[in-house]
Design brief:
single chain; alpha/beta; Immunoglobulin-like; six-stranded parallel β-sheet; 9 helices; about 25% strand; disordered C terminus
């Protein structure tokens, strides 16, 4: 199929999707089927000079409060409801932070984002700055009586570095090398039934630990997975004791650059550079996996921003046929003088970081002596 034909088909499907959304909204408005509008806030990023905050206004899908289940069909139904969101365009959200306040209007997909210059309202002793949100208007929808709070991660002055981590096959097993197993995990598993990799929580605890306490070094999760999976990822991290941080995911849709049509590399590079911009004084440890193109992406980032990279970890989850490509990318990084770890064991990564002086010497050893890949 030529690129012109593919583009024509994509445009036709996109037009049909938008037309269907308009028809569905009009029918719901006329029949009074609209439910309750809610704000879904995503953790923000920033420093003492500027916050960047993103969120979405949706019709409540009832997923977050749903009873957790091991049932395949129940989880499939929840997945469908995550992707078949009823976003609310044109909704007005009020924000307030300290003495400041403002308003923002959602776009066609229900998303909003804005920046705040905190000034004297900034709390230099807090790991998280709290911004209050209130839904003022959601056309044709019932307003939820409660507002929402969004946390903005701001690094401690004592932070040694930040951490930028992938999600799929870096922290959670999805079976990237087995298509059927991978998609069963992605669409049919709850947060409870997903599997964390051995020693990952302990390794990330050690990375974020520092002179100012357990969250001295900030962590950020950059993934090409869609925002529709935000609540599932959040619950998975809480259940498995993984340090929480802002997630920078991808919009789901057919427009250019979104989850169904956009590339993996461009999104990740853009979001990593956004984290760099929000933390101009920090170097970063990048953690990814061999299942996609993390090694190649991180190598490109290291060449462009050599002075911002403290180390790179690539979690080996694929057969040997990817090894040559990955090693070639990582050799380029090593030539820049940046430490690299390519391993299937987070215990090995932990030990290497200890040897490199990248982890606190006094931290109690929590990692056991058993290593194996998830299966």
């Amino acid at each position: 199929m030529t690129s012109q034909k593919a583009s024509t088909i994509q445009s036709a499907v996109l037009l049909a999707e938008r037309s269907w959304d308009r028809i569905k909204r009009r029918a719901s408005d006329r029949l009074g089927f609209n439910g309750t509008a809610i704000i879904q806030p995503y953790r923000g990023i920033g420093d003492s000079k500027r916050f960047w905050i993103r969120g979405r206004v949706l019709e409540d899908p009832g997923i977050v409060t749903a009873i957790q289940s091991d049932s395949l069909w129940t989880n499939l139904r929840h997945t469908f409801r995550r992707y078949e969101t009823d976003e609310i365009p044109g909704a007005t959200v009020q924000w307030s932070f300290g003495s400041q306040t403002g308003e923002v209007v959602t776009d066609d997909e229900g998303f909003f984002d804005f920046t705040i210059h905190p000034g004297n309202d900034f709390d230099p002793g807090a790991d998280w700055q709290n911004v209050q949100l209130k839904l003022l208007e959601a056309p044709n929808f019932e307003l939820h009586p409660l507002g929402a709070a969004v946390q903005v991660r701001t690094p401690s002055p004592q932070a040694r570095y930040g951490i930028i981590s992938d999600i799929d096959d870096t922290i959670v097993y999805t079976g990237a090398t087995n298509f059927v197993k991978h998609w069963r995990t992605v669409v049919a598993n709850s947060a409870e039934s997903r599997q964390v990799y051995d020693h990952l929580p302990e390794f990330y605890d050690a990375l974020t630990d520092g002179a100012a306490g357990a969250m001295t070094n900030p962590i950020y999760f950059v993934s090409s997975s869609p925002w529709n999976l935000f609540d599932l990822f959040e619950r998975f991290m809480i259940l498995n004791g993984i340090p929480l941080g802002p997630m920078l995911l991808k919009d789901f849709g057919l427009e250019q650059g979104k989850w169904l049509t956009g590339g993996h590399d461009g999104h990740k590079t853009k979001m990593i550079e956004r984290v760099f911009d929000a933390n101009p004084d920090l170097k970063f440890v990048l953690v990814g996996d061999s299942g996609q193109r993390d090694a190649e992406i991180y190598s490109g980032i290291a060449e462009k921003h050599t002075d911002r990279i403290r180390a790179i970890v690539i979690h080996d989850v694929t057969p040997d046929d990817r090894d040559a490509t990955i090693k070639d990318a990582l050799e380029k990084v090593e030539k820049l003088g940046i430490p690299v770890v390519y391993t299937d064991s987070y215990r090995t990564a932990h030990d290497t970081f200890m040897e490199e002086g990248l982890l606190p010497e006094a931290r109690p050893r929590k990692i056991a002596n058993i290593d194996h890949k998830a299966s």
